[in-house]
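Journal club prep — side note

Before the paper discussion, L.F. wants everyone to see what a predicted structure for a comparable chain looks like in token form. Sequence:
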Amino acid sequence: MLVKKHPHGEYFSRAPDKNSKLHKLMCGPDYIDLSMVENNFKTGYYSTTDGFLQDIGRIWSNSNKLKTNEQNISQKALELKLFFELQVQTLAIPEGQSVRDGTFPK
């Protein structure tokens, strides 16, 4: 998964250490990370691209809920989100549709 190899991918690839402040902030019932998404993908959990993109979106939305500046997680999430969207844009997306504005996938 290319997004895991991004410099900020490490922050979203697995749950934070249980002793860190971030663990308490991030690891609620809606928690998901890139490794979980990758595993879901490999095991055939996603039957549509919608489910995959929703889980990826949960990573970004969960990071935006953080009320801390520890390690500047929100900014790193935004940069990683933009990187991900650019990678998706390079796929065979019909002209006139975009991941960013929500017209792809339909």
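L.F.'s comment for the group: Residues 2-15+26-89 form a domain with the Histone Acetyltransferase; Chain A fold (CATH 1.20.920.10). Keep this in mind when we get to the figures.
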